[in-house]
Design goal:
The protein contains 23 helices and 19 strands. The chain has about 750 residues and is α/β, with parallel strands linked by helices. The chain has a 5-stranded mixed β-sheet with strand order 3-2-1-4-5. Helix 3 packs parallel to helix 5 (about 150-160), helix 9 crosses helix 10 (about 285-300) and helix 21 crosses helix 22 (about 570-585).
């Protein structure tokens, strides 16, 4: 594995299509042969005997070359005079182009630091000491200095010095550095290399036997004792981190328990008054508490900057923002506004850190005070008193946590893409074998010939999901009894159906239960049990799921509006008109293939009944030399061919045209990309109500998946305890679910 890294430079600047040279080919074959020996390697799993008194240390060695950098980490176990040291982790990375060797050495130290954090979290052990060894004096100097560094170096040095681990940095000579082997080594020699598997031999001895170098980096620890005036500049700047430790919280109040900075200040003042809420709190008390909390916040993140300002020196942050200390000891941002003259107690903004709870509640208080305005207005108000680096990005991320703004700005779950067409849309079936039904209306008819005496009636639209034919049944009301009668007429006129799709109207659910009761009755006729109807329902409040009948209802309403106008018809006249509209709709072309082509329509399939099906006749079944019998059979066969020709036209003109439909999902705008999960807290859209303040909150309890295994609707438990079913596009998730 390592031998590959030592040879990568031979293949630089080569594309995949380039033919490598013969020399490179043999080099590659050598690498392959070496890799084949890897399965024979045996790695010791026992790292050492660990007891409660064992002293544990992690030693990370880093190194780099022009084409790679890496680290090797060892666990040192000390049990009295028994000391063991074994390899526990190693990592190698290919270096970027056009990077200097010192920076690559720094990248190696960064990989070592990140690996130590990973190992420390993974081991269920208490590690007493952590060391990082490097053979680069330049990197050690960068890690110990507080002078202004280039941005690339500064960012990586700051990460290493972040203080997550108490690390001691030491210098090691190259020939003793096991990380030097990360740059490239043949596997067959690596397996027997004690330096690689156990580290430098001095780690198996006491610290007094460790090598001492004249370079003064090895004995300097980042968090060392308080520096004195006689220390060198490097030692002074390296050890100042512990000089000004973060101040304790004012009055031991935990700021994370408060969601408002004003409440935090008020509580701090009450605590200072020994909890006596009857003592009036003055404006000066609020000011002192506010200053103390901001001092605590700045000391937590900017202690090095504050020390530099106190010593009359400026680090890179001070130079960029023009930082100074005000009379209260707070870091303020003057910049180039030295001659600014405004009537304010705080003409210069106070520096705040990013990614802290105190900063978050300060910004949130300003946001609420400014009536929940957006990022620009909140940032402008914030900068009157505070300066936040990368302010726009930080304020924007904080405002996303505002629950009130979330309620008005959150987006619904994105509607999944349409699933594949069901089989009854693509395969031939007798008309109305698979049907859908829905109401439309009310329609107004007059009684007794007087236009003023009108009553409302409704129409049931049945549509075939295969041939797209329609059938109308006029009913006096939306009652279940009228629905049952209309459905019986539909079955008698069309020959019945195997499945019926509808929305979630109560009448359709009652119809399903009625038929189910009949099917379950032991005295029911056998023919009923043989022709059971499967009832299917679209998700609640999902009209797009019933587009197959909603579209035809729209066409029917257009015909009625254009033909009726303001006329009022009798029941008989309206029934006649609907029958004529039914014929016109069923005579519409299912596809278009030119004026001369035969156009297929739903009417062509209405004469085909399920009980009219006779067996197909093949050529082998045609009798020979039997006079009229053979002639009739040939005619029978010819009729079957005509019928098959209709279905072929239907497939070519209608089914194939379904590919032209480019929409992949409902046009509901861009939604939230998150996938709904059980337990998500959501805002539930209320029908016919656009005011989000009136929408209830809910919690997802159950998910329903479509044929494509995507969540399309869910059961939600509302605040009032009721459970409802809603499509995902009616649910608006909160970020608190993340």
């Amino acid at each position: 594995m390592v031998s590959c890294n030592c040879s990568t430079e031979n293949f630089n600047n080569k594309d995949w299509d380039n033919i490598i040279s013969e020399e490179d080919r043999y080099l590659f074959l050598d690498i392959v042969d070496d890799l084949q020996t890897i399965p024979n390697y045996e790695i010791m799993r026992l790292l050492g005997t660990i007891t409660q008194t064992t002293h544990l240390e992690l030693h990370a060695f880093s190194d780099a070359c022009m084409y790679s950098y890496g680290t090797a980490i060892y666990l040192r176990c000390v049990n009295g005079n028994d000391i063991t040291c074994n390899l526990i982790f190693a990592k190698v990375r290919v270096s970027s182009k056009n990077m200097t060797l010192p920076r690559l050495e720094l990248m190696g130290a960064l990989v070592a630091y990140r690996s130590l954090i990973f190992i420390n979290k993974s081991l269920n052990l208490v590690v007493n000491k952590v060391y990082v060894w490097s053979d680069s004096t330049c990197v050690l100097h960068w890690l110990h200095t507080r002078k202004l560094l280039p941005v690339f170096v500064k960012n990586r040095v700051n990460e290493i010095r972040s203080g997550e681990l108490d690390i001691t940095f030491k210098y090691i000579r190259t020939h003793l550095n096991p990380a030097d082997l990360c740059r490239g080594q043949i596997g067959s020699t690596l397996v027997n290399n004690k330096l690689w598997w156990h580290g430098p031999s001095f780690l198996c001895h006491g610290e007094n036997d460790w090598p001492v170098d004249n370079i003064d980096f090895g004995n300097v620890k980042l968090e060392a004792e308080i520096p004195t005036e006689e220390n060198s500049e490097i030692d002074l700047l390296a050890k100042t981190r512990s000089r000004n430790k973060p101040a304790p919280r004012p009055n031991d109040v935990d700021e994370t328990e408060f969601s408002s900075f004003h409440q935090l200040i008020n509580h701090t003042c009450i605590v200072r008054c020994s909890g006596n809420i009857r003592i009036p709190i003055s404006k000066g008390d609020y000011t002192v508490a506010r200053v103390d909390w901001i001092k605590y916040l700045q000391g937590k993140y900017f202690q090095d900057t504050k020390i530099s300002l106190e010593n009359g020196k400026k680090d890179s942050l001070s130079l960029n923002l023009g930082l100074e200390l005000d009379g209260n000891g707070l870091i303020i941002c003057k910049g180039r506004f030295v001659d600014l003259k405004i009537d304010s107690d705080n003409p210069f903004p106070i520096l705040l850190p990013r990614k802290d709870h105190l900063t978050q509640i300060i910004v949130m208080d300003i946001h609420v005070k400014n009536c929940h305005l957006g990022t620009n207005q909140t940032l402008a108000a914030l900068r009157n008193n505070y300066w936040l680096p990368s302010g726009r990005t930080e304020v924007k991320s904080i405002l996303r946590l505002c629950k009130i703004c979330q309620k008005f700005n959150c987006k619904p779950y994105e509607t999944p893409e349409f699933s594949a067409y069901p089989n009854y849309r693509l395969n031939k079936n007798v008309s109305f074998t698979h049907s859908a039904v829905d109401y439309f209306g009310p329609l107004h008819v007059n009684d007794g010939g007087k236009a003023t005496l009108t009553r409302s009636v409704w129409c049931l639209l049945f549509t075939c999901l295969t041939t797209r034919a329609v059938h109308f049944e006029l009913v006096n009301s939306e009652s279940s009894s009228d629905l049952l009668l209309a459905f019986r007429r539909f079955i008698a006129r069309t020959g019945g159906c195997k499945s019926l799709l509808s929305d979630n109207a109560a009448q359709f659910h009652l119809l399903q239960r009625t038929f189910q009761h009949v099917y379950d009755d032991n005295t029911a006729h056998d023919i009923l049990n043989e022709n059971k109807i499967e009832f299917k329902f679209t998700p609640a409040l999902s009209p797009w799921a019933g587009g197959c009948f909603e579209r035809l209802i729209s066409i029917t309403k257009q015909c009625l509006r254009k033909m009726l106008g303001n006329l009022s018809l009798s029941m008989c006249q309206l029934n006649t008109l609907l029958t004529e509209i039914q014929h016109a709709i069923n005579n519409r072309p299912l596809g278009y293939y030119g004026e001369e082509d035969f156009i297929i329509t739903p009417n062509h399939f209405l004469g085909i009944k399920r009980d009219n099906f006779l067996p197909d006749v093949s050529s082998s079944n045609v009798p020979r030399n039997q006079g009229n019998v053979s002639t009739l059979v040939r005619e029978w066969k010819k009729g079957n061919q005509y019928l098959e020709a209709f279905w072929s036209k239907w497939f070519a003109q209608y089914v194939q045209s379904l590919r032209e439909r480019q929409d992949v999902r409902c046009k509901s705008g861009k939604g939230n990309q998150r996938v709904p999960k059980v337990g998500d807290v959501v805002l539930v859209r209320k029908p016919k109500c656009k005011n989000r303040e009136m929408w209830p909150y809910g919690k997802i309890e159950k998910l329903y998946f479509g044929r494509d295994s995507k969540v399309r609707h869910v059961d939600v438990r509302l605040q009032n305890g009721f459970a409802v079913s809603r499509p995902v596009s009616w649910l608006y998730p909160f970020e608190c679910c993340d």
